[in-house]
Amino acid sequence: MKHNWRKRGRKQLKLYFDLIFSNGLKINALQAIPFWIASLLVGLVAFGYARLFSSSENLLQHILHWHSWMIFIMAPAGFLLAVLIAKIFAPNAKGSGIPQVMAAIELSTAKNDHKISKLLSLRIIVTKIASSLMMVLGGGAIGREGPTIQIAGSIFRIVNKWIPASWPKLSRQSFILTGAAAGLAAAFNTPLGGVVFAMEELSKIHLRFFRTALFSAVIIAGLTAQALLGPYLYLGYPDVKGPSFSIFLGVIVTAIVAGLLGSLMCKAILRIMKWKRSFSGTKVFIFILFAALLIALLAFFFNDEILGSGKDLMNEALFTNQKSGSWHTVALRIIGPIIAFNTGAAGGVFAPSLAAGASVGSLVSDLFHFAGANANIIILSGMVGFLTGVTRTPFTSAILVLEMTDRHSVIFHLMLAALVSNIASMIIDKHSFYEQLKNEYVEDALLPDKTVIQTNTEEKKTEQEHEG
């Protein structure tokens, strides 16, 4: 009796063991492998894209150092090519890429798969890279971080489609969201920023259902890019030692100004986009040429800091003695993204927003006569404040700038700037820039297919003719 009880107990234990350590591990592994493969691909593509983007910026600078008047050739040619590439091959590759990913997450159900393919696909990846490279070569004030997020979302969606039907089912929504987080982590080398961005901006579902996949994807994509680019910081190690207590007043003022200006920039972009919707083909062509020539004129006669992502401006403000800012630099760093984003080419506003925020911080630090470490804290606060005004994700903005600089001693300064700027920006608009653009992509995707409508109309006409 006792022997039978022990035998039955061993069988029960073996059953539990097989259940937990065999079938359970197998399912977990099968679910994890696609995430790992996609994350590795994201890291590789993000590395290649970063190198190409940097090379394009450097090439433009070399050309302009050779002859500054070449901007009048480079800007129109670059803008036109960038817009044509996007318009011909993948219209939804235009702009940042973050609203497209947000729309894809919202549409991620089985019946909407063909609609998601218009937002995330291999065609999108190639078009996004080509269009943004042409844009930055023409001097467009764009960044690669938003595009990297759409590229990463596309890679994850492609890998998800390759998963055999016999494998354990995976949520398409969580797959796209994880890809976006991995893309941001690889673009900025900010793993925490990627996770926080997924939670604060993208996620409408409970992260506990796929948190392991999210963390592993961010780590793998980030480590892959880091292995190729080196253990770099996006902005290095600015001096922030020994700040004075009076710095908090400067942080608050900077956050208010930066948050308002960030929100105003987005408002201007959306207003011009709305105005442009009535344009025909010829008017669009004229607008692109006008935008390119305006950028060229401002760069040639006023200040060439309007060109590109603005990373050099951030480095100069944080790592040189040239910390004093000017109102026209702030104006140019705001005008640049407004013009570039409305051309219809690919390119993000993440890096340009950080550059605009740095220029705001430089201006405020000059007005308050801050220098050294105090000035750097104000500049970093401006970056957090402006980005928060654009994205309305205060925690993400603070964590991103914190990870870019590895300055944990000023975390409270940056979080205060994020909180204040988020409140200030609501005076201009209660909704985030990406949220409003996302709604447009969702509405466009849900519109009946024009081909289907045309086919149905032709069938009705044929039936009426037969009846007649």
Written overview of the protein:
The protein is mainly alpha-helical. It has two domains: 37-229, Clc chloride channel; 247-445, Orthogonal Bundle (Clc chloride channel), CATH 1.10.3080. The protein is built from 19 helices and no strands. The protein has helices spanning 2-66, 71-89, 98-106, 113-116, 122-137, 145-162, 172-188, 191-202, 211-229, 247-276, 281-301, 311-319, 327-341, 350-367, 372-391, 394-405, 411-425, 433-446, 450-467. Helix 8 (191-202) crosses helix 9 (211-229). It is globular and about 75 Å long. The termini are far apart. 51% of the residues are buried.
Give the structure's gist in a few sentences.
The chain is built from 19 helices and no strands.
Sum up the structure in keywords.
468 residues, 2 domains, Clc chloride channel, mainly alpha, single chain, disordered C terminus
Q: Could you report the average pLDDT, rounded to the nearest whole number? A: 82
Uncertain stretches of 5 or more adjacent residues = 450-468
CATH topology of the largest domain: Clc chloride channel
> What series of H and E elements makes up the topology?
HHHHHHHHHHHHHHHHHHH
Fraction of residues in β-strands: under 5%
- Return the CATH architecture of the largest domain: Orthogonal Bundle
Shape: globular
CATH class type of the largest domain: Mainly Alpha
Helix content: over 70%
Outline the biggest β-sheet.
none
- How far the N terminus sits from the C terminus, by CA atoms, comes to 90 Å
Tally of distinct domains: 2
How many beta-strand segments?
0
Treating each run of at least 4 consecutive H or I residues as one helix, how many helices? 19
Q: How does the helix and strand content classify structurally? A: mainly alpha
CATH fourth-tier homologous superfamily of the largest domain: Clc chloride channel
Give the C-alpha Rg.
25 Å
